[in-house]
Write a structure and sequence with these properties.
The chain is 79% helix and 0% strand. With 145 residues, the protein is an all-alpha fold. Helix 1 packs antiparallel against helix 2, helix 1 runs parallel beside helix 3 and helix 4 runs antiparallel to helix 5. The longest helix is centred in the middle third of the chain and has 27 residues. The protein is elongated, with a radius of gyration of 16 Å. It starts with a helix and ends with a helix.
Length: 145
Amino acid sequence: MNGDKEKNTQLLKYIGKNAKMGGDNLETVLPDIKDERLKETLRFQVAEYRLVERLAKDKLSALGEQPSEDKLTGICARAMINVKMLMDKSNEHIAEMVAQGSTMGIIDVTKQLKNCDGCDEDAVNLAYRLKCIEQKNLDEMKHFL
């Protein structure tokens, strides 16, 4: 991997953390979904997040680095999702929550991409891949609103 090691590490840790959070959050809602079409759509989204998470982890390992561990953020996110799910488990509400999460993801990864001068092309491409996944997820959720 070429480019600035510190910048690559920072970008890859960001990608891995956000892909993990996206997959974890979707896995939190999956057990409550009754609609098979929505459930299958979200399972596919989880698989995409897990692939990006693994690729980021592999690229970090090649740099001699490890992914960031932020268990508190994950616990808080799952707790908030569970509270929201207590109020409304409809397809529309779940789709709205996923769409909001993907919108936040698009904004965050766009900000990261503005600051990736000196990063390796593979790391930047992985960030763009995450952004595309978020956009596709947002577009898919519109069908369930």
